[in-house]
Design a protein that fits this description.
286 residues, 6-stranded antiparallel barrel, 16 strands, Peptidase_S1A, Peptidase_S1_PA_chymotrypsin, serine protease, disulfide bond
């Protein structure tokens, strides 16, 4: 299949300095090795004959991609690409392209990122083929903690705030901060909630364009997707004492399970389903 990306036509949204910045990407770090982060997804929006990368995501089941709500709330994501490494070069032997069949946004999401619940699920048009380039991401258990974990955020994007995008998938090592430190007045204060994870706050960070991408933390011999890139400081992606903030995936395991297991209706309005409607149906059936 042809590479239908028109490179560098990315969406960029930045909020005021007192609130988080949307649509984040990688600052610092280095190029990822090919075939390292096999669950990394690229979310695309159509513009004419082009399909432009706007956000990251995580393949968690053969037909399901996890991302953040901000990526699908105001953007019409119509394609998901798995197995991509170089956004410019067509790699037909490794890339898989899928149309979006349905989108489910968390019922408690609103556009104030500081309120949390920045999470969504995308159902693909058909099952992904698992191979040496594409595999499922591992979700955390509700009891797992991040103490002592080595974590990486991954994505394509700017190498510094306001800089140029990277065509090659990047990775950056981030140290996880405890909630007490991150929610202190010297860091994010009350902006950060317990359903979030803070990591970084120095040289390495997520930045413009990589919302929805994973925070991969090593647990034993496995990398587990503990977070989804949600926001950074509008003062700069790698602002000191303003670590990248991620949606805490373990907080939403019941919701992920309910949506991906009990899909009870088809989505017709902008391919977007309200998880609130699903919850009502499940309660009626109960």
């Amino acid at each position: 299949m042809l590479n239908v990306l028109c490179f560098l036509a990315f969406a960029t949204l930045v909020l005021g300095q007192t609130v988080p910045a949307k649509q984040n990407r990688i600052v610092g770090g280095g190029l990822a090795s090919p075939n390292t982060w096999k669950w990394q997804a690229s979310l695309r929006v159509q513009s004419g004959t082009c399909y432009n990368h706007v956000c990251g995501g995580v393949l968690i089941r053969k037909q399901w991609v996890l991302t953040t709500a901000q990526c699908v709330d105001h953007l019409v994501v119509s394609m998901v690409v798995l197995g991509d490494y170089d956004l410019i070069t067509s790699e037909n032997s490794r890339e898989q392209y899928y149309a979006v069949s349905a989108i489910y946004i968390h019922p408690n999401w609103n556009r104030n990122l500081a309120d949390g619940n920045d999470i969504a699920l995308i159902r693909l048009s058909s099952d992904v083929i698992l191979n040496s380039y594409v595999q499922l991401g591992t979700l955390p258990t509700s009891s797992q903690t991040l103490s002592g974990s080595v974590c990486y955020t991954t994505g394509w994007g700017v190498t510094q705030t306001g800089g140029l995008y990277s065509a090659i998938l990047k990775e950056a090592s981030l140290a996880v901060l405890d909630y007490g430190t991150c929610s202190s007045s010297t860091h994010w204060g009350s902006v950060v909630k317990p359903n979030m994870i803070c990591a970084g706050g120095g040289t390495n960070a997520a930045c413009t364009g990589d919302s929805g991408g994973p925070l991969n933390c090593q647990v034993g011999n496995t990398y587990v997707v503990h977070g989804l890139v949600s926001f950074v400081s509008a003062a700069g992606c790698n602002t000191i004492n303003k670590p990248t903030v991620f949606t805490r995936v373990s907080n939403y395991l019941p919701w992920i399970q309910s949506v991906s297991t009990y899909e009870l209706f088809n989505c017709k309005h902008n391919n977007t389903c309200s998880a609130t409607i699903m919850a009502i149906i499940l309660l009626l059936l109960w």
